TrEMBL record:
The EC number(s) this enzyme carries: 2.7.7.41
Family: Belongs to the CDS family.
Membrane topology: Multi-pass membrane protein
Biased composition (Low complexity): 17-28
GO BP field: CDP-diacylglycerol biosynthetic process
Main location: membrane
GO MF annotation, one: phosphatidate cytidylyltransferase activity
Annotated segments matching region Disordered: 1-94
Species: Streptomyces sp. gb1(2016)
Tagged with keyword Nucleotide-binding: no
Pfam families the UniProt entry points to: CTP_transf_1 (PF01148)
Name by which UniProt lists this protein: Phosphatidate cytidylyltransferase
Annotated catalysed reactions: a 1,2-diacyl-sn-glycero-3-phosphate + CTP + H(+) = a CDP-1,2-diacyl-sn-glycerol + diphosphate
One GO cellular component term noted in the UniProt record for this chain: plasma membrane
Length: 361
């Protein structure tokens, strides 16, 4: 390549325009030769192109040095593969299911055994449950709210209420309840007056909530088929709770009362109603003298409603106290009160419906 191809001036290889009649600006060429020769492209002279390339290489090395490993011996990490989506977690029960079943079977055997062997022994079991339930309730009130509901008059009066309900039925239960409430008012007077109103209010509430509702179980027992009535009451409540748990755990998506008990669902309520109605129809048809299956359907519906309300009421109390369980005596269940929550409000419902359907005898 000659010098004319490097940095050639514009018009090289062509005739340039004459200036003032003088000679052509570029070298003279034969016209025929010019027509046979293709013009060479003009390549701009870039003397620093090599330097720019070197600068770019330096910058690339600097960027690699900054973004590379921090230490000389480190090896660059290999790109992580995209993790496979994990399957959705399986639903799990909130408690130890084995312990809950074991304790439930043990309690059931104790209750049924005492119920059909000697009625007085079953009354003693009810009294024991009432006293322990009162102890759990008053202990949690004192720990969490500083409320000193007097346990001694509550326990003595509660036991007397259950026995009075068995011996003198409704009349004896009402009298024992009034005397127990009066004993709570008097007992609290032996302490300083600060907090008297809240203490006696909590005490009277405890009288009604635990022993008074439990007296309806003792009153059911006084009938000739009293053992079967109590068994029907227990079966309907347990079946209602089981249906709510099973259906709600498997199909529950719509919350029933999320602010009170987030674990309860509307599907669980439907399960409780369905299971309890079927159990009620079977119990009234085969266990209760003079009973009919349609009466059992109504009773099952009523028990599902009362058991659910009782469970929600207990959850409301525990949420106000800021606790999960009332006690720890029963592994997998919590405390005694955590098992009585649905039984207590269902007792007067079953007692009343049995009296209306088949009488009190």
């Amino acid at each position: 390549m000659n010098d004319s191809s490097r940095g050639a001036p514009q018009g090289a290889g062509y005739w340039s325009a004459p200036e003032m009649g003088g000679a052509p600006a570029g070298p003279a060429h034969d016209v025929h030769g010019a027509q046979q020769t293709r013009p060479m492209p003009i390549v701009p002279d870039v003397p620093d192109a090599g330097r720019d390339a070197d600068d770019r290489d330096d910058r690339n090395r600097d960027a690699a040095r900054v973004s590379g490993p921090l230490f000389r011996d480190e090896k660059p990490q290999e790109p992580m593969s995209t993790p496979l989506p994990s399957p959705p977690p399986k639903k799990r029960a909130g408690r130890d299911l084995r312990a809950a079943i074991g304790v439930g079977v043990g309690l059931g055997a104790l209750v049924v055994g005492s119920l059909f062997i000697v009625k007085a022994v079953f009354v003693g079991v009810v009294v024991l449950a009432v006293v322990v339930g009162l102890w759990e309730l008053t202990s949690r009130l004192k720990e969490r709210k500083g409320i000193n509901a007097p346990l001694v008059p509550l326990a003595v009066g509660g036991a007397a209420m259950v026995v009075a309900g068995y011996v003198r039925e409704a009349e004896g239960a009402w009298v024992a309840m009034a005397l127990t409430a009066l004993a709570v008012l008097v007992w609290r007077m032996t302490e300083p007056p600060e907090g008297y109103l809240k203490d006696v209010t909590a005490g009277v509430f405890a009288v009604f909530y635990v022993p008074f509702l439990a007296t309806f179980v003792a009153m059911m027992l006084t009938a000739d088929d009293g053992a079967w009535r109590v068994l029907t009451f227990l079966l309907l409540t347990v079946v209602s709770d089981t249906g709510a748990y099973a259906v709600g755990w498997r199909f529950g998506t719509h919350k029933l009362a999320p602010r009170i008990s987030p674990g309860k669902t509307r599907e669980g309520l439907f399960g409780a109603v369905g299971f309890a109605m079927v159990a009620g129809a079977l119990c009234m048809e085969f266990l209760i003298d003079g009973g009919s299956w349609w009466q059992g359907l109504l009773m099952g519906l009523a028990v599902a409603a009362s058991a659910t309300l009782g469970d929600l009421g207990e959850s409301m109390i525990k949420r106000d106290l800021g606790i999960k369980d009332m006690g720890t005596l029963l592994p997998g269940h919590g405390g005694i009160m955590d098992r009585l929550d649905s039984l207590l409000p269902s007792a007067p419902v079953v007692w009343l419906l049995l009296v209306l359907f088949v009488g009190s005898g």
